[in-house]
Amino acid sequence: MTQLRHFLQLIARDFPNTTSLNYASPWAGAHYRPVPGSTPQALREEAQAKQTYSYLKQLAKSDPSSGVAIIEGIEHLENPPSEYLDERSIKECYGHLDGFRILGKDECPEGVKWGARYETAVINSPVQTVTRQNSDGSWSFCIPRPLSGGTIIGGTKQPRDYDPNPSVETREKLLANAAKWFPFAPGSEGKFDVIRDIVGRRPAREGGMRIEAEKVGEGRFVVHAYGAGGRGFELSYGVAGDVVKLMVGNKLVGERASL
Predict the structure, then answer these.
(1) Strand 68-77, strand 114-123: pairing
(2) Residue ranges of the chain with pLDDT lower than 50?
(3) Boundaries of each FAD dependent oxidoreductase domain copy (predicted)?
(4) What are phi and psi for residue 44, nearest 5 degrees?
């Protein structure tokens, strides 16, 4: 067994107890959803996500009080990118998920060309997550929040938009897209009762996360690990593992074996 002995100082603008426009994690969907791809960034994130999924499964089983749970995840895509039609790509990206299966045409809603079900890991344990890709390429999702009430309706990505105020246009688009497939309760008349608008930023980097060691003085280094965008929870444990490997590889921390 390998153990590391080291002294670290964590530097961040926001921490888990923070609620801020620039820190969206407290309101994040936080459900594990694979993203197939063949670029170096996509393959790196795929490996990080798989490590995180394995850890979250173990955490959900060993410590229910953590708020992590394993539930059913559903995906419906109306205009699937080519990666979703590549059997090998899907097997590599989704094959590690318990219960994964591609849905037959008779199991998919009208207009859906690719669908899947699997067991996903989530934070704050909703009952079921649904992710829908619309025909124009935009995305919708609904994530019930039983611990705090209500359901998060999301699916917007607006690079370099720094307006801190809720957009009526964006809200109407999100609700209209979700209303096409949301399982409304009887008596709701197919309409949402909006409780709150939340604006949150998900810091991302073109080309993917920055994970590297930067020397800032004699014997002093900063190990960067930021830019996960909307995949912070999904990549978290895998990124932490890469940071440890980077630190050991650059001899920033010692490594010793113990029995």
Answers:
(1) antiparallel
(2) 1, 4, 257-259
(3) 133-243
(4) -65, -45
